[in-house]
């Protein structure tokens, strides 16, 4: 069978793979905590300032738009993950529905997403950690706290260190790391609720005027900068939504835990949809409280905007508390995405698209080799890159994966309407269409160089696929498992 026609059987996804499987130790509270832990992080604690700088007070609309697209994607993920409870997430669904080549592109994009999310969050965590230590009178040298893009910077050592710490936790075992994650999520959500309680009394409606200083914005032509030779700078509500999109995703990490879930047919839908509902409501309230408390210009450029707002309100102790909670709890995002990244690698390795040595499972039931490998790569990126660059490029990978899931939802409903579905997304045409169209609009609202970097990444990936993966794929050797 030619590689461009290869498609994995959905029934084969339910069969045991070669070698040891991951241990089923998680239930829906663990998944809900994993989702909230992944979603609530650098996006709301740090990127709210970046988004406000692009859209002004209309960043509230940006949050709503990003939340709408992600909510539809979450519904699609919930249906597909309960049908195909495999570790590979969107990659596995694409393999079964759209074929091997598309699955490779999606998997390769997910590798980009998860790697850069971990790096971006580590950089965001470093900003809060350095600010927290400064508040205690401990000043770390610039050379060791920022990358070379800042004058005097060499390496962001705190970002590298936190990735190493979280990796060690993951190697202890899935249930152990999930339990600690749940505790840290409670701390993080409590901190945001505390911020709202302190900031709301200072609410000033005048801070919402002018509401939309940079307009609504619009997508640019695909790869416009490369075509025209002119720099393209995106601002406005859509551009902010494309960046703030980073603040919402993370629920897809839940789908990578499908194989480790005790009752995937029930628990995956609860975890995915539940975490999105909780986080969307929390984000809108926090954004409104932040803008109402201080003018956007006062915190748009800050690496720790919520703590800065509290300090400007004369709430130094509360600001220190917010910074401390971020330092303590932001690693939940690192944990969730490092967890998800290793499972994406695992799924691709099991299918022969990556070296099968990456699929080894340790005695504690975790993919130790690929977890350590992933940690080394993302730590190197976090040490030298800027937060906005990391977040923007991570968004590109996520948008590709989410769009593929939206397509998979529609195609599978039309191709195989009678197959059992433990969870059914309502109005599948509308849900799938909003997911796909929203992701395309957001992609072309990213900076032009981000689009180009994403294109280069996938061209390189396809070269690897054609030269090695297509010949070593499991379906190339076992065509009977094809759909």
CATH architecture: Up-down Bundle
Please give the alpha-carbon distance between the first and last residues.
11 Å
Largest beta-sheet characterization: none
Number of strands: 0
CATH class placement: Mainly Alpha
The SSE order reads HHHHHHHHHHHHHHHHHHHHH
Number of individual domains = 1
Number of helices: 21
Strand composition percent: under 5%
Which structural class do you get from the secondary structure elements?
mainly alpha
CATH topology: the name is: Amino acid/polyamine transporter I
Keywords: Membrane, Transmembrane, Transmembrane helix, Transport
InterPro entries: AA/rel_permease1
Protein name: Amino acid permease-associated region
Transmembrane segments: 31-52, 58-78, 90-111, 150-172, 179-203, 232-251, 272-293, 318-340, 361-384, 390-414, 426-446, 452-468
